[in-house]
Design brief:
mainly beta; Immunoglobulin-like; three-stranded antiparallel sheet; 2 helices; Hsp20/alpha crystallin family protein; A-crystallin/Hsp20_dom; HSP20-like_chaperone
């Protein structure tokens, strides 16, 4: 076999060692980022009783460029991230920049009138409260008579 063939490495998985030479050093991490980071900014969700905390990692966020919407079992966060340093040229990029939108399904409906948010050191914290209806919603269902058609 040709000793210059980038996949040459002998037996016992040697071909794996040659893959970075063949596909480029960052091929697998770039491919993985395409798959796993497509949902938007990373987050954690914490629960305590009837409350939720949704924590987003958002470095470079300008508060005037972010909108938060909470309705039923959905939380939506939209904004733009800026991580720029004037006078410097970007040579490696792993932090997301530009516009983003992240929609999260919550474990239960939340109150839209009791949502608090704070931002510090690149972390956005959204505090939500479970929607507890005092009286169950009772809705009359109309029945369509298919015999009369």
């Amino acid at each position: 076999m040709n000793k210059f063939w980038p996949m040459n490495g002998g037996g016992n998985g040697g071909w794996k060692k040659g893959m970075p030479n063949f596909l480029g050093e960052d091929f697998f991490s770039d491919f993985q980022n395409l798959i796993f980071d497509s949902s938007g900014p990373k987050l954690n969700i914490y629960e305590s009783g009837n409350e939720l905390l949704v924590i987003f990692a958002l470095p470079g966020l300008k508060l005037e460029e972010v909108d938060i919407y909470a309705y039923e079992r959905t939380l939506e966060v939209r904004g733009t991230l800026h991580v720029d340093y004037s006078g410097f040229r970007l040579i490696q990029e792993e932090l997301a920049q530009g516009p983003f939108k992240r929609t999260v399904e919550l474990p239960y409906p939340v109150r839209d009138d009791k949502v608090d948010a704070s931002y510090q050191r690149g972390v956005l914290v959204i505090h939500l409260h479970r929607l507890i209806r005092s009286t169950p919603i009772k809705k009359k269902v109309n029945i369509q008579n298919l015999d009369e058609e």
